[in-house]
């Protein structure tokens, strides 16, 4: 990737200690992103302190789940944020550690990088119902935010938007992550109107890819070996930020978790 670009990576770690044991910090040091958004940290503040509060020389900010070994998100950045907001929904989902926003504001610009981990509904009807509540709240939040500032949300959103975004789309049309309701939520978010207006940055750069777009593979069977994957990891940005995207990369040379790191190079500076 062009060294002059602002490199922003998103990676679901499936446990920061596990990913660290598989060499993720060496990879971050070698690739040199300006910022990396991580999800499923699966640790608390005491676990992070002195061990993972920085990675490859980049300090991190976090939103931890109350439940041990569960969820949790973070942002590691070479640039110091002007403000950090942990959480967006104190009534329900903040206890699950699903949202951290680093603001990089200047006198002439308001800009945020967000790391978010959307719920999975695959464990049962209760969690799918919780996922729908989360989506409704997140949509309202992002609509408010886009009226105030530019942003890019990086994360595992646990939704494949289109049939091109997963290998076995026919057999998954009623399964969590590819239900009609979840796909309709993505349609609404990305619609070119006041109730949407957000851009799927990867698809702005690669509108038609299928097999090469996947970022997650089940640990069951030979899913990874056979590339039976899903695209669950996104950069979702306001149009002005999406317009600055120049290159993308999904790294599959090493396996740090069940997700692959997804990096976008933007023609911008913080």
Automatic annotation (TrEMBL):
InterPro entries: AP_endonuc_1, Endo/exonu/phosph_ase_sf, Endo/exonuclease/phosphatase. The active site is at 117, 156 (proton donor/acceptor), 259 (proton acceptor). Belongs to the DNA repair enzymes AP/ExoA family. This is Exodeoxyribonuclease III. Probably binds two magnesium or manganese ions per subunit. Gene3D superfamilies: Endonuclease/exonuclease/phosphatase. It comes from the Bacteria. Mg(2+) binds at residues 12, 40, 156, 158, 258-259.
